[in-house]
Each structure stands twice: as C-alpha cells, then as structure tokens.
C-alpha cells in the first residue's frame, strides 16, 4: 500500500541532527525516465532531463525535509564484489541510453555548486555507502532519511532511519518506516533481504524460487524465524513450493549473499563531516546559466535558505521626495558626479510611460562622515511643477552630467516621449554585465545586485531616522525606486574592474551603448503593415490548414487530432506500418525533422499532407501574431534586445520580425504585407553578401578563399571548382549546394556526420568531401584547429572588435559539454564579428542620416540586413550613404559586398 510523505514534524525527533542520504545513480535514472528527453535540452544540444528532474527532486527534499547533513552516493561501475560472487548480477540491464550519457557528471556539477558532498567507492555500490553512513549515523543519534529507488535499502529501516521510496518519477515518495515495511511485505525491515532472497529481484537479475511470492516467503520467515531457519527446515516444507525451495537452495543462498548491504566500508567522510556549508551562489548562477535552468534557479532561490554569508543586507538611504522648488537645488547639490537613475513606468511596442524618476549618488566610503550612505531623490513626473520640470529637463539633457541606467533603452524612450530627452548616458549595467558574461540567461537588476554586491533590493531599516520617508507601513514606491537607483550606481562601480579585465569597456562605450538610442528610435518608428492584406493572408492559411487536414484524413479514412503525438504514433506506426523513428518515453517521436526524414524514405501521401498542415499552421500562427501586434498607427513596433545572444547578435521580440519566413513562396507572402508608410516613397533593403564566409577568409588568411572573393566569381562555384577539380562553368547545382552547406557548416563546427545528414549522403562521402576541401583550403583547416586550441589556452574566443566569449567547458570532463564548447569556439568569432560589423554599420548610417538632416529612417535590422523607409526624393542619397557605411564598417582582407533593393513592400525590396 502507498504511504504519503509526511511533513518533517511528523517523522523526525526535534533537536537531533538530520542526515539525508541519496542514491545518485538510482535517482538520476528515475529522473531520466520520468521526464521526456525531447523537452529538455540546451541550445547547444546537451540533454538535461535527468539533471533537471534530479535537481528538482533535490530542491524539494532540501525544502521539505530540512536536513542539516546531506550526502549523495554514486556507483563507480557495474563491476563490484557482487559480480564476482554472481556473474549474472544485473546482467539483464541494457546499456545506458545515449541521451543519459554525460548527465551524471552534470548532476555532480550541480551538487558541487550546492556544496553537497558526494562519495563513491570502487568495487562497491551506492547502497553500500549509504548502509555504512546510515549505520554510523545511527550510532551517533542522527535521524536518517534515505532516498533510493532500490528496495535493498529497506533492510536499513529502523525507528530512526526512514527510506523515501519513489512511487512515480521523483516527485511522489512513499515514506517507508518499520511499520510501513511490515505492512507492505509482511516482514520487519531486517528480514527484508531474506524475503528478497526467496522471491528474487528482477531488476538485479536474481532469480527467485518458482511459484513463491512475497506472501509465501513472508509466511515461511514468520514460521521459521529467518532465512537460515527456512533453509534448515527446507525438508519439512510440503508440496510443489517445498520441492522448488529444495531445488533452488543454492540460488537462494547466493541471492542472500548478494543483496546484503555492506555496513563497514572505509569512507573519506563521516556523518558529522556531511553538514551543509551553504551553497555557492555564483557557481549556481554559472552552472544554471549553462544548463538554461531559469525556472529551476528561481525555485531554488525562493525555496531554500540562501547560502552563508547571506546578502549583507539592503541599502541605507538618505532619501527624499522632492517637492516644489527643490528639484534644481537638489540636483545642483548632489547630482554633479556619476549618478544612477531608475524610472517608474514602462516601454513596450515603441511607446513609453514615464511616471516618476529616482536619482541616487554612489555610497560614499566610511571615512566620508555624515552622508556616507549617499543621497537619493524621487520626483513624480506627473505632478512636478513647471519650474522643477525645466530644471530636471536641463539636467537630463546636459551631456556633462553623467548618468547610468539599468537596461537604458526603455527609460530613454519613455523619457523622450514625455519631452525629456537624455544626454550624458555613461553606462548601462545590464549591457555591462552582458559584455562581461554573455552566457548568462538573465540580467535582472535584483539578481545582479546579489551576485556582484551581495545585497538585496530593499531598504535597510535604521533606527536613527536616516530615511526621511515614512516607513511605518513598509517601503512605498518612492523608496523602492530610490533603492533601485542606488543599486544601479553601486553595481556600475562594481562592474568596472571586470569590464576592463575582460576587454569589454571599449566595446560598451563605442558600440553597445551608442546603439541604444538607435534601437529605441527604430522601435518607436516601427514598420507599416497592410492590415487588409495580412487579414486576407490569415484566411488563406486557415483554409490551407483545413484543406491539408481533409486530405490527410482522406488518406487514412478517419479524422484524428493532427497535433496529438499519441494519435499520430498510432496512425504512422500501427495503422500505416511506417519505419520507427527515434524512441522517446512517450513512444516514437513525431517532431518535424523526424517526419521530414520519414517522408524522404516513404513518400507516403499522408505524411505529405501532414507536413503541409504543419507548415500552414505555423504560417497562420505567425500571421495571427502579427495582426495582434499592429498598433493604432498601423505599424508594428518590435522590441530589440541586446543581451540575449551570447555571440552579440540582436534579438527581436513581441513580435519577432527576424524570423519572418523567406525561403518558401508562402512565407515570402508575409513580407509582402510589410509596406512603405503613407509619407514614404519606398522601402530600401541592404544586406551583406556572404559576410560570414568573408570573415572566415579574413580570419583564416586562406589565399584560396581570399582569391575567390577578389575575383568576383560566385564563391561557391569557385570553391566547388577547386574541390571537385572542374572548371567553374562545370560546377553543377548539386555540387554548388554541397559546397555551400559545407562552407557554412565548417564555421559552425559541423561534423562529417552532421554534413552527411544535411546533404543526405553517407558519412564517408561527407568526410571525403571535407578532406578534399581542406586539401585545397588548408588555411581554413589550420584556422579552425587553431581557434579552438587558442580558446582552450586562454579560456575565451574573441571577435574582430574584441568581443569575448568565455568557454570554461572547453576543459570539461563531460564530452558533450566539451564538444558543444568547441562548436561555440568555432562559431563565436565568425558570427560575433558579423554581429559587430552590422552594429557598426547601423551607427554609421544613423549618423550619416542625421548629419545630412534626411527624413528617411532605419526601421529594421534582420541579422545581415537593414530595412529603411525612404522619404520622397531621398532614395539615391540613402542608397549611397548606406552602401558606404556598410562596406566601410570593417577593414577586411576581402571586400564587404553590399546588395541593395527597393520596392513598395519588404518582399518587393528584396534582392
């Protein structure tokens, strides 16, 4: 019968030390099979379902059981003294799934970050470690909790030792006390190994006595006392069961020898040495960033006591709400140096709401005497008097008054729309933190404040009346805003050493920060949309979805939910008998790649209609999202993010205008609905031609690639002629396609196997193609090898402009993480340099438009492409300025080629 997991208060004596022992491999496997593999992987391809499930379970246990001592025991290998005793022990277990490989080492990294001790002993199992520690802890009057999916641990249960046995996954645990063991198995815990010896244990490949189940075995043990008693009385047991007992006595004795746990191992740690010291917050951040466990990290921080030493506290403030006639004097008295600002309000879809502004000076040193806590002020922008508003406006617009924001784009846009443009922006703490550590997943101010300052975003209560605002009912929004402003300036100062150490200070001041107002204006302007055409397109795709579904149903003779993997599995593999795809916990995968590969093998009409249904559904969803995003001005205002992609590329969101389909005719129809606005003459698009391959040529110095670009010949045709040994005119479309795929693939760490899948050729043919390529372009081969070796030596890669990406996993013992880091090392300098170059071009073209006082506006950036709305009569000059800015954005050994197109719509302006 099942037993609920009781709260700690029900199961543990107060005042006693509490030890939690976890069987690492057992719970890792449980987690792996409890969570779908396909739903848990990083952007680098590392599967993480076992790590996620294990960590989630661990967090829950640390929260619910509140142990002060913890240890996780691991198996070293399957070769133990038990396999020497019985060669077939666990011989029925298959090898670990490929997706499980590497996840145990990641779990150990999580445990190391949480500072939870781990123990493993060659020749023994985790259960033996747990048995030894449990026995030692019992003698030292610990209360012990054992978390394991191995029933052998039930023999350890006593009044002070409880086994938490998973019933379902790693979240539903049965609390196995002596009473629970007796109730479920009919024997006390110490007799459980005797019962298991008689019945056998399928999971360990230990055969039991035929026809003897737990009830019979328990009855015999009750009659004869223990297993020795049963063996001694074997001749007295009647019937078929007695015959089987006597026939299998040798196996029963082996079973009992194997399932008994060792309780006296020599271990490197004692129970007293397993006390939790408090976890390493920074290591947790780094590791969870890499594993992309944002939600799990939030759960960890919310549910567990923070590590010691805890945050030093909050912020002490001498703050005041500025009233009429006080804004100018306060700014003159306090805001003459670098200050932090925090805006109350919002910025979304190019529209802002600036309600109030807080300003704070840095926290002074202790030797500064009175006012060492620094000054802070709060201004309500909705009620501020005209004279005060004028003083604030002049101060904000003064380029010599240096200001720092966190995530400055929104505040700058919102203030500008209130008629308060800002100059003198010296820093942005979100961008600074991003440039230092581009692989983080979050740059939230509160998170960064804890990480870098060891403080929380709260007012530190004081009895001396330092804070002039009323705090009798807790902090109000003015206090909160001032604390944020103080955190911004203190964080800015804290980040300076790391900014310079990581060569990021210049990149911040010359590239990322100047780009902020350019992006802010692009968001504010938006791009016009033909909503009627977009609505018609939505109806078109809806009809396509319906038609594809009807045609699919006609093939199989029934209607199903085409979005249900379970129903699709039944149709594809049971009804239609198609070849099985990759196995998952819920059956065989029906993801897009698997279905496309399956169609390539079978060309079954049902698959054709299913794929069309999925394509039409995706396009319809895209159009529906765009329709919802059209603002009152008839334009769509996307939001650009500078801190998402570790390589430096900009990201577009709400809606994402960087993933508007362009490779299919149906997808290109969406771009036809993006049009020039009523006051414009046309849209102009300009993009770089093969910029990543040009950067490859520059960085590698390969004379063949350089010659290809300088010759003016089609790159892939030129390279194909060298690789295949034919004249350029004789390079077929198929040859060119293979060369193009390989050229770009090499820059992203593509393996021969990956290339073979992409080109639908054998791995040996793909390897031969790569070998021929490198024979003729040896500089590329040497560069690719060298960039990884250099990154492993220095710890980072960098772009042409010096943007660094630190890759500690290049020396990881985990093969998957190491190989992923190697791919990043290949990719980051090339894709990052392309990102830097387009940003330089954006700054240069924006400056040129302003210098010439043109009315044309930059609307969009889509990776290597810029989209402009050209004002009447300005087309020729805008094209000239744009080509000049983009082609001159970097000095490479090969020319930066820019293609330009114009038209009434985005699609028409393509080239």
UniProtKB/TrEMBL annotation:
Ranges for domain DNA-directed DNA polymerase family A palm: 667-874
Alphabetic keyword roster: DNA damage, DNA repair, DNA replication, DNA-binding, DNA-directed DNA polymerase, Exonuclease, Hydrolase, Nuclease, Nucleotidyltransferase, Transferase
Matching SMART domains: 53EXOc (SM00475), HhH2 (SM00279), POLAc (SM00482)
Pfam family, one: 5_3_exonuc
Gene3D superfamilies from the UniProt entry: 3.30.70.370, 5' to 3' exonuclease, C-terminal subdomain, 5'-nuclease, Ribonuclease H-like superfamily/Ribonuclease H, Taq DNA Polymerase, Chain T, domain 4
Enzyme class: transferase
EC number(s) reported in the record: 2.7.7.7
Top-rank taxon, per record: Bacteria
Reactions that this protein is recorded to catalyse: DNA(n) + a 2'-deoxyribonucleoside 5'-triphosphate = DNA(n+1) + diphosphate
Alphabetical list of SUPFAM superfamilies matching this protein: 5' to 3' exonuclease, C-terminal subdomain (SSF47807), DNA/RNA polymerases (SSF56672), PIN domain-like (SSF88723), Ribonuclease H-like (SSF53098)
5'-3' exonuclease domain location: 15-277
General function of this protein: In addition to polymerase activity, this DNA polymerase exhibits 5'-3' exonuclease activity.
Protein name from the UniProt record: DNA polymerase I
Lineage of the species this protein comes from: Bacteria, Bacillati, Actinomycetota, Actinomycetes, Kineosporiales
Gene: polA
């Amino acid at each position: 019968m099942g037993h609920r997991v009781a709260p700690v208060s029900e199961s543990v004596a107060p005042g006693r030390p509490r030890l939690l022992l976890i069987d690492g491999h057992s719970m890792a496997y449980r987690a792996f099979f409890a969570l779908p593999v396909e739903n848990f992987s990083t952007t680098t391809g590392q599967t993480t379902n076992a790590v996620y499930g294990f960590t989630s379970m661990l967090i829950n246990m640390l929260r619910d059981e509140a142990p002060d001592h913890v240890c996780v025991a691991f198996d070293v290998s399957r070769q133990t003294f038990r396999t020497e005793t019985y060669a077939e022990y666990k011989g029925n277990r298959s090898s670990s799934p490929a997706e499980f490989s590497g996840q145990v080492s990641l779990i150990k990294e999580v445990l190391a970050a949480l500072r939870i001790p781990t123990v493993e002993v060659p020749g023994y199992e985790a259960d033996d470690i747990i048995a030894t520690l449990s026995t030692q802890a019992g003698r030292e009057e610990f209360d012990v909790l054992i978390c394991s999916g191995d029933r052998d641990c039930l023999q350890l249960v006593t009044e002070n030792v409880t086994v938490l046995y998973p019933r379902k996954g790693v979240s539903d645990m049965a609390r196995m006390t002596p009473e629970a063991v007796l109730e479920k198995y009919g024997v006390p815990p110490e007799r459980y190994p005797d019962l298991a010896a008689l019945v056998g244990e399928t999971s360990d490949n230990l055969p039991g006595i035929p026809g003897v189940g737990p009830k019979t075995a328990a009855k015999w043990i009750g009659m004869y006392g223990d297993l020795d008693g049963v063996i001694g009385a074997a001749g007295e047991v009647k019937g078929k069961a007695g015959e089987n007992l006597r026939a299998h006595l040798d196996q029963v004795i082996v079973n009992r020898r194997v399932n008994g746990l060792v309780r006296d191992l020599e271990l490197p740690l004692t129970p007293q040495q397993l006390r939790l010291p408090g976890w390493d917050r920074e290591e947790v951040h780094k590791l969870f960033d890499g594993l992309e466990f944002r939600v799990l990290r939030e759960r960890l921080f919310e549910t567990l006591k923070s590590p010691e030493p805890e945050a030093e506290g909050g912020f002490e403030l001498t703050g005041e709400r500025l009233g009429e006639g006080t804004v100018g004097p306060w700014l003159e008295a306090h805001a003459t140096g670098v200050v932090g600002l925090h805006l109350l309000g919002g910025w979304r879809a190019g529209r802002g709401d600036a309600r109030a502004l807080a300003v704070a000076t840095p926290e002074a040193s202790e030797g500064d005497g009175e006012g060492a806590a620094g000054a802070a002020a709060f201004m309500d922008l909705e009620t501020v008097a005209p004279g005060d508003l004028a003083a604030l406006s002049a101060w904000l617009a003064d380029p010599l008054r240096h200001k720092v924001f966190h995530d400055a784009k929104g505040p700058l846009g919102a203030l500008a729309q209130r008629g308060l443009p800002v100059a003198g922006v010296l820093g942005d703490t979100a961008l600074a933190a991003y440039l230092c550590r581009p692989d983080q997943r979050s740059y939230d101010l509160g998170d960064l404040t804890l990480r870098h300052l060891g403080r929380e975003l709260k007012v530190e209560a004081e009895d001396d009346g330092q804070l002039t605002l009323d705090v009798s009912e807790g902090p109000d929004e003015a206090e909160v805003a001032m604390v944020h402003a103080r955190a911004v300036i203190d964080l800015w100062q804290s980040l300076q050493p790391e900014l310079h150490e990581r060569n990021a200070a210049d990149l911040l001041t010359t590239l990322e920060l100047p780009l902020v107002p350019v992006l802010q204006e692009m968001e504010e302007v938006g791009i016009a949309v033909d909503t009627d055409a977009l609505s018609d397109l939505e109806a078109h795709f809806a009809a396509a979805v319906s038609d594809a579904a009807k045609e699919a149903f006609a093939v199989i003779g029934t209607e199903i939910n085409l979005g249900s993997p379970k129903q699709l599995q039944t149709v594809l593999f049971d009804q239609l008998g198609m070849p099985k795809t990759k196995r998952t916990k819920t059956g065989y995968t029906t993801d897009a790649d698997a279905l496309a590969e399956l169609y390539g093998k079978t060309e079954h009409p049902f698959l054709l209609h299913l794929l069309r249904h999925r394509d039409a559904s995706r396009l319809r969803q895209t159009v529906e999202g765009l329709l919802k995003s059209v603002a009152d001005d008839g334009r769509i205002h996307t939001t650009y993010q500078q801190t998402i992609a570790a390589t430096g590329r900009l990201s577009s969101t709400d809606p994402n205008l960087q993933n508007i389909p362009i490779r299919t005719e149906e997808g290109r129809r969406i771009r036809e609905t993006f049009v020039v606005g009523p006051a414009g003459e046309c849209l102009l698009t300009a993009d770089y031609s093969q910029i990543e391959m040009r950067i490859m040529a520059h960085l590698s110095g390969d004379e063949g690639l350089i010659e290809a670009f300088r010759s003016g010949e089609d790159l892939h045709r030129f390279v194909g002629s060298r690789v295949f040994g034919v004249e350029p005119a004789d390079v077929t479309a198929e040859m060119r396609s293979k060369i193009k795929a390989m050229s770009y693939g090499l820059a992203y760490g593509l393996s021969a196997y990956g290339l073979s899948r992409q080109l639908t050729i054998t791995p040996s043919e793909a390897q031969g193609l790569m070998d021929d390529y490198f024979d003729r372009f040896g500089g590329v081969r040497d560069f690719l090898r060298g960039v990884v070796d250099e990154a492993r030596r220095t710890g980072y890669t960098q772009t042409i402009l010096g943007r660094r990406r630190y890759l500690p996993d290049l020396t990881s013992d985990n093969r998957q993480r190491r190989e992923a880091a190697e791919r990043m090392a290949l990719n980051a300098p090339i894709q990052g340099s392309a990102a830097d170059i387009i940003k330089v071009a954006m700054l240069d073209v924006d400056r040129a438009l302003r210098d010439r006082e043109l009315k044309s506006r930059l609307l969009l950036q889509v990776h290597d492409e810029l989209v402009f709305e050209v004002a009447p009569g300005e087309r020729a000059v805008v094209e000239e300025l744009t080509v000049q800015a983009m082609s001159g954005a970097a000095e490479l050994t090969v020319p930066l080629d820019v293609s330009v197109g114009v038209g009434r719509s985005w699609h028409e302006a393509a080239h």
